[in-house]
Amino acid sequence: xxxxxxKYGGSSVADVEAMKRVARRVADTHDAGxxxxxxxxxxxxxxxxxxxxxxxxxxxxPEREMDILLSAGERISMALLAMAVNELGVQAQAYTGAQxxxxxxxxxxxxxxxxxxxxRVARAVKEGQVAIVAGFQGVSEDDDVTTLxxxxxxxxxxxxxxxxxxxxxxxxxxxxxxxxxxxRIVPKAHRLRTLTQEETLELAAHGAKILHLRAVxxxxxxxxxxxxxxxxxxxxxxxxxxxxxxPELEGLVPSAALVDPKDLTMEKPLISGIAHDRSQDKIxxxxxxxxxxxxxxxxxxxxxxxANIDMIVQNVPVSDPTLANISFTLPEGDAQRxxxxxxxxxxxxxxxELRYNPNxxxxxxxxxxxxxxxxxxxxxxxxxxxxGINIDLISxxxxxxxxxxxxxxxxxxxxxxxxxxxxxxxETEAVxxxxxxx
Length: 438
Ligand code: ASP
Ligand code: MG
What we know:
Elements: E1 3-8, H1 16-31, E2 35-40, H2 46-57, H3 63-87, E3 92-95, E4 102-104, E5 113-116, H4 119-126, E6 130-134, E7 137-139, E8 145-147, H5 153-164, E9 168-173, E10 194-195, H6 197-205, H7 213-222, E11 226-230, E12 238-240, H8 248-252, H9 261-265, E13 273-277, E14 280-289, H10 294-304, E15 312-315, E16 323-331, H11 332-344, H12 346-349, E17 353-357, E18 360-366, H13 376-386, E19 394-397, E20 400-406, H14 410-420
Parallel strand pairs: 1-2, 1-9, 2-6, 3-6, 9-11, 10-12
Antiparallel strand pairs: 4-5, 7-8, 11-12, 13-18, 14-16, 14-17, 15-16, 18-20, 19-20
Helix pairs in contact: 1-3, 2-3, 5-7, 6-7, 13-14
The structure holds aspartic acid (ASP) and magnesium ion.
Aspartic acid is lined by residues 10, 41-42, 47, 73, 135-136, 150-153, 438.
């Protein structure tokens, strides 16, 4: 017997038919002798629809009320799913985030989990019931409903899996797992059988949309094995674990979810996947005095306005070493505030110009094998130059190389690099069953 947390995204419970299919899967897992906790997202586009409705009433909805509104989407689906599971003769009870003991801070719309006390859930499961928990929500110290940010149900599921000591957290979506690149850009992308948590974190942090970043962080911190798979097929998806060869996994997971031994023994390839990101912008501050403390001043202003800086490059022109240019990238939503704050400090800092470029794209190549293999950057740059694509900024970690290109070169860059690293599948594998990719 294993304790399994299953998270179903909005596309998996979009309508009554989908809901019934999910209920069947939940009941089957329970009937196979496992303890099952389910986390569910709002049906289909419910969250977007609620946001649209609110926007028609006010341009500035109070954050507290917004969270009450948005949390309703998940409450609807948890109640309906519990009914559908009961209908199949398996006892199921629905719990809100607060009832499931998900305690958060009070930052509405982007609350962080500060404590997990899922006693009721644990009790229900011990008594042989299926517990169905509303994703994406918690309760603050002031007893207010909070939400965890868009896509936050993944985080609910992984946090519950960690707190309950689950054997696996299954993330159900409408594609067969994680792919070597976005199949909409690279139709020959292949399904990844396994990924380390570190690789998944790099991919999620650099634009891959399939998992909520905080969910991956949680999984890594608490060592929760994840299985990302489709609720529309029985296929094995992508296993994410830092010890994928852990033999314990095999006996513990149900046969439907049993990891294919091939997946465990396969030698890790050099490169696992490519993430891309269109949502960043670039700012260049020109002709700064090249003195100690100047960069600190620029970035403390960015920090004061809450801008999340990603890549940074400084160059000092050979012709005049007393000056420096600093370029950096940041989320597009942070750009205007940052430009205004820097402009206001122009005389104090003493720069010439602020140049703003919203039309950039970022490609990130990720693979744990990079750590021990030289030559990856040479190959990446060669592939891009053969495709006639210019590289603007570069940044690296131990297992990632990111480059910034022009926005309209990005798709071509992703395709070229995918082929150059031999990642193209021989047949098209990626199937999107539902339509929302969630
Ligand atoms: N329903 C929320 C959203 O659409 C949370 C989630 O689906 O994870 O963002
Ligand atoms: Mg942009």
